[in-house]
Amino acid sequence: MKKVLRLISVQLGAILGDMLSIGNNRKRKPKAIYFGVLLFVLGMGSIAFFYCFMLGKGLQMYNSIDILPAMMMAVISMIVLLTTVFKVKGTIFGFKDYDMVMSLPVKTGSIVASRLILLYSINFLFVLMIMIPMMIAYGVLANPGYLFYLYGLLTIWFIPLVPIILASVLGTGITYIASKFRHSNLANIIVSVILILAIIVLPLFVKDTGEEIVNFSRALTEQVNSIYPLADMYTKAVVHNNSMALVSFLGISVVCFLLYSLLIGKVFKKMNTVIMTGRYRTNYKMGELKQTTPFQALYKKELARYFSSTIYVLNTGVGIIMLIAGAVALLFVDLEQMLGVPQALDMIRKVSPIFISFCLATSSTTMASISLEGKNLWVIKSLPVSTKVIFLSKMAVNFTITAPSVIAAVLISIVLELSMIQTLLLLGITIGFSFFVAVFGMLVNLKLPNFNWTTETVVVKQSASSVVTIFSGIGIAALQYLMLLILPSFELAYLIYGILLILTDIALYKILITWGNKRFVAL
Amino acid sequence: MLKIRNFSKSYKGDKKAVDQLNLEIANGDIFGFIGHNGAGKTTTIRAIAGVMDFEEGDIFINGVSIKKDPVACKKITAYIPDNPDLYEHLTGISYLNFIGDIYEVNKFDRETLIEKYSDAFELTSNLGDSIASYSHGMKQKLAIIAALIHRPKLLILDEPFVGLDPKAAHTLKSIMSDLCKSGSAIFFSTHVLEVAEKLCNRIAIIKNGKLIAYGPTKEVTGDHSLEDVFLDLIDKK
């Protein structure tokens, strides 16, 4: 047990080190980083509380507040499931220090246990960020007895267990099958995008309003209960204080996890050997080679890097996928009828640039592109190309990813029957914001690079650079709403915002080619 | 070809990793740079390659300052670090083609030289594989081939023989000799003193960031072996 704990502390330390370190020095963690992390946790917690409270208020109007804990438990279970599928490779199988760890005089079972607990710990933090605010919101709205809090706090520890098992089984299957293919990452990305699209698009076709939405939520909860009986047990235990349900919930979770650990222990070495050695081998024969310019070569290299990482594509592509899915769905859905609100189209016309900007704010590939050079940084630094060309090639990849947003803007302007001026404003803000996320992401990454990462997930999702870029982008996008409130017409609001955005873009680009150049040379 | 003038580098205000280094390497030289671990060899090599920024002194490649025009210097230089971390998402051939594009090597030269050096290092059949599947030695060979396909006038290598099998090490030594005969200069660091003694026409020994011996190999060693001279200098000075 001592060895397992030591392994966990070293591995958790490495992940936290990856998340908090800046530049090449693992020890250099400015106080601002800790403050930023605290702010992030508090911010996420506040958003979760606000969401749960508003949802609870709505449910309370229809005497259905009791389904709130189960709904949020199902939501967090789904989040754990979806995010863990892509963490299995890199955490349990095919992780970077496999050879080093396996050569230690420690039992394989202890190594497996440490990897599973590591996976559990990462997920547990997210469970806490959602479930604690949910308990507070439910407590305020439903005023439950002390047993709710007691059982709630007890069950929190066990909620991630079964979703982790399901995700691991799925992830293991995908990893095993993908290891047999030459373009395994592409196969991984395609399956994941289909999954995301299904989650986004399907609810749009459910034509329910008002009370029907609550009925729908209840029906959905019942459906979740039948598919995932643990959610039902959870409700009975936490909301209705049923101790038998509590014991069953805890017992099933723990037994399943133990059985799963034993199973993984049996296949751990075999699976890792298959993944590490099962790569495609060819007998290459020299043929004709295609020539391109240095810029095109850098762009192609950067694009190949982007598509080689499933987590990078999913994390920065989901906003654009949502945008395209939303724009296409608009073609087939009668919005006024679906929302049940007259003049819904007018409202949507007003907020469509904000929606596009929000989607773009999550689509900065440049926020991680310098950090992802990692140990390869010497390659681009030793090449005979100017820093400006390197920056432009990285930004060009970002433009390639955000380019479909222009098509989405055109579709939206057709469906919403926007005037010529409104269409131009929408297109201007879309293009201006695409440029903003590319330049701003690059500047933030230059300021807060991380070259010591051990998993790409940390750089793409949890590094200081990605958090600052995404939240600043969301803030800048939200400014439009403020301007809508202040200014008399929405055309004027977007015109002023558009001009300010273009001026910001120009200023940021100038900073990039002056300060950014010096900063890159010094890295 | 290479002039280092009063080059110094310190990290975060600590003591100097390299202190007032002055060196000169002419066309056709094979220059061995020797020193104990942490002596300042890699720091110097990274500065020459334009990978690391520095404030004190200057480095000139073919008369051009690396500080003032790094792109012009890098165009005629090739650098191989001690640990060749390459783009693992690319295949061997796509990496070589990428380097060919960046250095604007014409199609004929590119295809001919890739084939020549890949065959010499027995890597041709693996060029279609992902670099992620390569062993350390294979990555080292790929980095060497990438460095050679644009015919550099200055080749900078940090511990080039580490990880290479005996045949590949022999191939590299003969390629280095050929390159110098054609007028290029080679600057490399090594801990294998026998190789330095046999291969280099000039050597420099660095200790704690300062140059303690520098000149034609025969002048530096005199009647002794390079190993004896090195151990003597490191222990006494």
UniProtKB/TrEMBL annotation, chain A:
Record field: transmembrane: 32-56, 68-86, 117-140, 146-174, 186-206, 243-263, 310-333, 395-415, 421-446, 467-486, 492-513
Identify the keywords attached in UniProt to this record, alphabetized. Membrane, Transmembrane, Transmembrane helix
Q: Which superkingdom is the protein from?
A: Bacteria
Q: Does the keyword Transmembrane apply?
A: yes
Name the UniProt record assigns to this protein: ABC-2 type transport system permease protein
TrEMBL record, chain B:
Q: Which residues form the ABC transporter domain?
A: 2-233
Q: Quote the InterPro entries the UniProt record gives.
A: AAA+_ATPase (IPR003593), ABC_transporter-like_ATP-bd (IPR003439), ABC_transporter-like_CS (IPR017871), ABC_Transporter_VariousFunc (IPR051782), P-loop_NTPase (IPR027417)
Q: Which UniProt keywords apply?
A: ATP-binding, Nucleotide-binding, Transport
Is Nucleotide-binding set as a keyword in this record? yes
- The protein here is known as ABC transporter ATP-binding protein
What does the record give under GO molecular function?
ATP binding; ATP hydrolysis activity
Q: Which organism is it from?
A: Mobilitalea sibirica
Against PANTHER family, the record matches this protein to: ABC TRANSPORTER ATP-BINDING PROTEIN ALBC-RELATED
